[in-house]
User: What shape does this take?
Amino acid sequence: MSETAPWLGHVKVCIDETVLMRHPRPIEHIARMLVDPSFQESWSLSTEDYLQQHNIEEQMTSAMNLAVPPGQPVPLDVLSRLSDLLTKATTEGKSSSAEKAALQAVNASLHAQVKELTLENEQLKLGSFTHAVPGEEAQIMAGQALLDSGSKAAGGSGAKAGAEAKAAEPHEAPQPWIATPKQKEGQVRAAVQQEEVAAQAAAAGERDGLKGKALHAEAWNTGGGPVIDALLEHTPLIDAQYLLGLHKESSIVPRGQAVPEAALIGPHNAWRLTWGADGPQKSVLVLSYPWLDREHPDREGEQLAKIAPILEKAINGAIHGDHRVGHLHGEIIENGKHNTVGVLWDYMCLPQYPRTSDEDKVFKTRLRGMNDWYAHPKTKVLLVTTPLPTGAIYSNKDRPYDSRGWCIVERRLSCLVKNAYYSYDLALGGDKGQSPPLSPDVMARELREGVLSGKVGFTAASDVELVIEIYTRGFVKAFETHCAFEGGRIWYQSLGWGKAEVPSLVEAIKYAENKCDATKMERKLTLVLSKNKFDAEDEAALQEAVEGSTIFRLSI
Assistant: This one.
């Protein structure tokens, strides 16, 4: 073929432009450029003319000055701010509902991409491309250039922020996992879908005056809803609909800092959890599961696939179930379309490495409250005890659920004062039964001995003392606060307990008696132990344990 052929020159320009862009789908983009004039109209313009025609320099300068005010520190969300400002600038004058919907979708997509770009930029600052996929270096460099320009405008404070982020990490901190291009595309699509879900719910909430209010206030309050409200002040939940969206898009969960705002359930939209006549027991799902890698708990989406049927069933129940309170707030309850289920998934609910100093403070605050989510009498705990995946090469796939320190503590926290009904063992498809409460002293001994023998594992060796502290705090708080639930009754009946469980029960009773503050309790707690397999000797030992107790009585 002749190099002078006009069409061949046209093809060359298309290829050059696409390569320069580092487009994620180059062949598709080249194909479109070949026939779509809108992609070609500016080729003849010089760089200077192109910048002037589209007023790029002025708009970028204005947006940068607003996103990073001169003389001020570079905000951590600088890219999100800049994205918002630029998107807003392009949407002025748009009025049709179709245009607005399209622009909302684009904005959601931009947010998702910006958060991923921020993650990649953080990784660059740490000097690691360990998990970068081919072609991502250009995106990372672009993010770095943008932050560099911002730090210059702010007097160089961006470098200080980077240093603080690095200083906040342990010596061998795990690096962030970078999703594959296909997974990223799925995350963007799921974010766009979730943006629409959240926008519709927000509009309905404003219409019916539901912001911050419980739909079924009495059930929410008597079921421990105020405790959930307090936890949401510092720890958001993840909308189960967003998780289903990720699964349907064959994608993976993003780390905490990259979760779209539209996917979070917090104080502003907690009313979406308050739809049931049974309180929070069907609308708050707490996940206990094994991480498959230190960098990411589920990099192939296999854990998400396991729980997806549970999530789908829960969402269907929220939207289509018997809500029984439709007359209180009109159609928002009658059709249930805005009801949802909030999921506590640690990887998304807590900031992950690398963390800035501010993010580290948030992480520690949320971590301190984790025991409350598991021990709450009315939250549903999903125990992902199924066999670990074997198809992909994971770094942590050889240790099952019951030999992982964090999983052990999470399960035990769920056994303290919670009815067995509220723990769902995924491997069994329901309740496994319930172990008796374990005193913190016994828990500490078993964990330390398990680590020494190799029967119990932690990703970080220091975690063993951390989880002991978390369990101890959770144990005491669970018993001190339970008088607000069920008239102070703890339902241990019909669990098949017998002689083997008595020592654990006795030790737990004695520990609680010594460590719990009776002045914080409105009444004694009633341990309902009827319909178990205790003989006369067992019952005598239990009665002796509560003799003279200031916080316990027995019903046996």
